[in-house]
């Protein structure tokens, strides 16, 4: 990929902290390409009252709403009226230029029914790649709750994918969290905060079910992705097979749900010998797509009381070769417990930190619309704002 100017967490946070709010907002809004959105929006009707308000400025206003954590459209209009600096940065020159709440609502509804914001985000991804701001070799995936702005229903319609439903997540310490609403499924360029793809579903949707379309979104953009990183909640055999079919290396911890490892394997999926010792990884055969493991006594990693002869008469010691295709969940291209696997899994914090920024600084959880499509539009404004902030921080 050449020389990569990837934005580290520290440099991004430093830019956020050190830049004055007005300069920061201006830079973020300038990093939002409006052309793709305007092209995707339906053309104004030729009959009836002509549209007098600038669509581009309304789009900028909605991004500014996320950046400034403004909760409602009325609060956005009030800020535009009373704050001349904010109004000027968005692009409105006078108070009389500010659209009515109904006009803002109408453009939001139009956006939610087309792919305008998806086109904006796709252009941001291409810009980040062209400027070599983020590495797309590895991507981290996760999902997070988005509480609904509507009355909870004890018996929500579980068959309607467009409406809010009850979701359940398990925290890192095993605690259960239940909410009524939606989920945002996110892919982030590992090692940065830059979002690569986003999907919104009703809360009941299982994370694994959306992993496949989310991965497809990142791979279809021909980003040269090689590794897909997930937490243990995504540990399902079918996902490993899907990732392998797309030429990706899965980095996913095993989740045995309290059970024991199968005979001949340790807790990390590595093979064990007849004495119960974990075999030593001895190399990968790319031609045969197999991992080679050796007797740990022969490699000096354990002092087996039976010696090498217990398992093999060879001076080289016992050898086991495992084809990745046989069981990609247990043994993959990068083996759990190795420094390479651990280093890649550490990059999963990228998506966790991205969600933290979206929730705490970009209005993600301040939902004031109903229905999955409109909630997704709300989410995409936050995602676009985050992508723009990363782009602005590396100018």
Can you put this structure into words, describing what you see?
By secondary structure, the protein is of the alpha+beta class. Among the domains are: 147 residues, Nucleotidyltransferase, domain 5; 72 residues, no CATH class. It contains 13 helices and nine strands. The strands form two sheets. Strands 1, 2, 3, 4, 5 and 6 form a six-stranded mixed sheet that branches. The protein has a three-stranded antiparallel sheet with strand order 7-8-9, with no helix packed on it. α10 links the parallel β5 and β6. α2 packs across α13 and α7 crosses α13. The longest helix is centred in the last third of the chain and has 22 residues. It is elongated, with a radius of gyration of 25 Å. It starts with 8 loop residues before the first helix and ends with a helix. The N terminus is likely disordered.
Kindly provide the radius of gyration, computed on alpha-carbon positions and rounded to a whole number of angstroms: 25 Å
Task: Label the structural class.
Answer: alpha+beta
Summarize the main sheet: 6 strands, mixed
Average of per-residue pLDDT values: 91
Low-confidence stretches: 1-5
Task: Encode the helix/strand succession as letters.
Answer: HHHHHHHHEEEEHEHEEEEHHH
Q: How much helix is in the residues?
A: 25-40%
| Strand content range | 15-25%
Query: Shape from CA axes?
Result: elongated
What is the count of DSSP helices, taking H or I runs of 4+ residues?
13
* CATH class category label of one domain: Alpha Beta
Q: Count of DSSP E strands?
A: 9
Task: Tell me the CATH architecture of one domain.
Answer: 2-Layer Sandwich
CATH topology of one domain: Nucleotidyltransferase, domain 5
Distance between the termini: 19 Å
């Amino acid at each position: 990929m050449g020389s990569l100017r990837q934005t580290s967490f520290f440099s991004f946070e430093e830019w956020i902290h050190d830049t004055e709010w007005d300069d920061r907002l201006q830079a973020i809004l300038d990093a939002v390409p409006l052309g793709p959105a305007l092209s995707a929006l339906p053309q104004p009707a030729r009959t009836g009252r002509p549209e007098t308000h600038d669509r581009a400025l309304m789009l900028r206003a909605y991004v500014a709403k996320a950046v400034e954590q403004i909760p409602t459209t009325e609060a956005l209009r009030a800020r535009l009226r009373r704050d001349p600096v904010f109004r000027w940065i968005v692009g409105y020159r006078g108070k009389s230029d500010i659209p009515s709440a109904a006009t803002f609502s109408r453009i939001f509804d139009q956006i939610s029914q087309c792919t305008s914001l998806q086109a904006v985000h796709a252009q941001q991804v291409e810009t980040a790649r062209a400027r070599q701001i983020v590495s797309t070799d590895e991507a981290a995936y996760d999902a997070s709750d988005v509480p609904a702005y509507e009355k909870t229903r004890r018996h929500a319609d579980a068959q309607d994918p467009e409406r809010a439903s009850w979701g359940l997540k398990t925290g890192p310490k095993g605690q259960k969290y239940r909410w009524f609403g939606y989920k945002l499924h996110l892919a982030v360029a590992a090692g940065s905060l830059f979002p690569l793809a986003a999907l919104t579903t009703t809360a009941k949707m299982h994370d694994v079910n959306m992993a496949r379309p989310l991965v497809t979104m990142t791979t279809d953009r021909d980003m040269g992705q090689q590794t897909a990183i997930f937490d243990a909640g995504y540990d399902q055999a079918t996902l490993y097979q899907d990732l392998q079919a797309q030429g990706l290396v899965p980095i996913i911890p095993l989740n045995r749900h309290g059970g024991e490892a199968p005979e001949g394997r340790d807790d990390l999926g590595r093979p064990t010998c007849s004495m119960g010792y974990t075999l030593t990884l001895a190399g990968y055969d790319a031609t045969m797509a197999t991992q080679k493991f050796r007797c740990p006594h022969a490699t000096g990693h354990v002092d087996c009381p039976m010696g090498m002869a217990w398992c093999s008469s060879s001076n080289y010691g016992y050898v086991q070769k495992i084809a990745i295709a046989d069981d990609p969940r247990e043994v993959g291209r990068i083996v759990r417990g190795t420094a390479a696997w651990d280093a890649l899994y550490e990059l999963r914090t990228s998506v966790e930190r991205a969600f933290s920024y979206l929730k705490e600084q970009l209005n993600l959880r301040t939902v004031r619309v109903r229905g999955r499509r409109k909630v997704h539009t709300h989410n995409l404004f936050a995602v676009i704002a985050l992508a723009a902030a990363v782009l602005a921080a590396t100018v």
